[in-house]
Write a structure and sequence with these properties.
Blueprint: E1 12-13, E2 20-21, E3 26-33, H1 38-49, E4 54-60, E5 65-70, H2 76-85, E6 89-93
Antiparallel strand pairs: 1-2, 3-5, 3-6, 4-5
Length: 94
């Protein structure tokens, strides 16, 4: 029996059930205009990722979508503020 919580495929378990667990949270997708390049993607990933409770940010330039995974329901107003401050426009939930 292995003492590691991680399996050979990189997934981790809680150690009690032996089953792999994944990051849980609330996933919300936003429509954002003004994103055109890798710099845009990096900027939004950074500013949104710094918000309390945000655990993951995925920016899709082709679709203009930003997917945010957070511990609890995100504050849309706060996310819109940081997106606006970075020079982009959050146009709503996608």
């Amino acid at each position: 029996m292995s003492s590691s919580c991680c399996s050979t495929d990189g997934t981790c378990s809680t150690g009690t059930s032996g089953q792999a667990t994944t990051t849980e949270g609330v996933t919300t997708t936003y429509a954002v205009s003004g994103m055109t390049c890798g710099h845009c993607k990096a900027t939004l990933t950074k500013v949104i990722g710094e918000l309390d409770g945000v655990t993951e940010v995925d920016v899709d330039l082709e679709t203009g979508r930003v997917t945010v995974v957070s511990a609890a329901e995100p504050d849309d107003t706060l996310i819109a503020e940081v997106v606006d401050d970075a020079g982009y426009e959050l146009t709503g939930r996608a």
